[in-house]
Amino acid sequence: MSLPLTPAAVPARPGDLFGHPKGLTFLFTTEMWERFSYYGMRALLVLYMVKYLLQPDRAENVIGLAALRSALEFLFGPLDIQPLSSQIYGLYTGLVYLTPVFGGLLADRVWGQRKTVIVGAALMAAGHFMMAFEQLFLFALLVLILGNGAFKPNISTQVGSLYAPGDPRRDRAFSIFYVGINLGAFLAPLICGTLGEEIGWHYGFAAAGVGMTLGLVIYLCASPLLPHDELTKSKASGTPRTFGRDEWRAVGALVMLSLPVTFFWATYEQQGNTIALWADGYTDRTVDLLFWSGEIPTTWFQSFNPFMIFAFTPFIIALWTWQAVRGREPSTVAKMAYGCFWNAASYLILFAAAWHAGAGKASWLWLAAYFAVITIGELYLSPTALSLVSKVSPAHCVSMMMGVWLATSFYGSFLAGYLGGFWSSMAKGDFFLMLAIIAALAGFAVLIFNRPLRAVLNE
């Protein structure tokens, strides 16, 4: 991804807002509320299962849980409450990122992006409200998975569709859009997490449902400002929906990159899983400042990463712009490799924290440092990848390709659940060291692809 050398590289157009199409603001806000709902629910999910829902006196009331547990134990052996919770968490977050493949295909071939986004948002709102009924827990997760599959790839592709081919504002737009994602993710644990931990689990889930409903309303109001569906434009132009040689090469390059990136997400997705357990049981959360003293609620740590996303984004963009002026900006693939290495470094910090704490509890400042470093890694990998997919994918299957890319998080999240199952049986330092090694190996694998793929990706 190459950023424009100056903000004035492209003149403002009539109807633009802050140098970008007005539709970007509405897509930004819609995605903010969708991420509020997702991360609000995610912040509570493992704690809710471990501390409440999967306790013996309640688990038997959850429809379908016995069958799911039997299936998971057939694959992984006997599962106690914590490993079972981690497996369910990994399965849920994984499927959330597998279904976008089908949601993208549905938009490209049948409904178009707009209708598919609306259906997805409505399903997710319903799923969050269903979480209030303990018996429907697994059905609620299923509805959320299907809704996210319809919503996620098509909201992202509409950001790219706001810009003409070659418009350098596209990359900056995805960084702005990514701030919206993380603004919602920052607020979610503070609101949903606090309601869930302090008042009642179901209040936190209901707040997530309200957030998703607001996102749907905003999207419907934005309809006149959004780009036409790629399906509509393709039918109107009569463009053949076939792949040429260059298109096949671009698709192949994205698939090659997706394989090692899977392992980035396998380690990254421990944040809502084992990192939440580390914060809850192994971290001294006491804070004594001049203006406030007390204990940081466990779910609040889930806000550290998204807060740092929008705090660090301007500096990362400024760094890339400075490098671009001097002809030293890394290629997209190189940035993604660096993201994996930053991810590895974050788990080395927790390895040091576990070693330093010994049998005691580690200071919360170790966790703050972990989130700062893993955030830099995410900024190097995730928004650059979204921009890359929207830029190089063939127009007639851009939503499906976005779904294929998001599916890296499916395999990564499923693997994250598997890795999380070792939490109870491994020394915590050894566990974090294992994650650091996996992330570093992913970085080296991505780096191997840097030179061969630069020509294919036009960098």
* Structure summary, number of beta strands: 6
Give me the secondary-structure category: mainly alpha
Quaternary assembly: single chain
**What gap, in angstroms, lies between the N and C termini?**
8 Å
The CATH superfamily turns out to be MFS general substrate transporter like domains
Strand residue percentage: under 5%
Identify the strand order in the major beta sheet: 1-2
CATH architecture designation: Up-down Bundle
pLDDT averaged over residues = 81
Describe this structure in words.
The protein is mainly α and 459 residues long. The chain has one domain: Growth Hormone, Chain: A (Up-down Bundle), CATH 1.20.1250. It is 74% helix and 3% strand. It contains 18 helices and six strands. The protein has a two-stranded antiparallel sheet. A two-stranded parallel ribbon has the order 3-6. The N terminus is likely disordered.
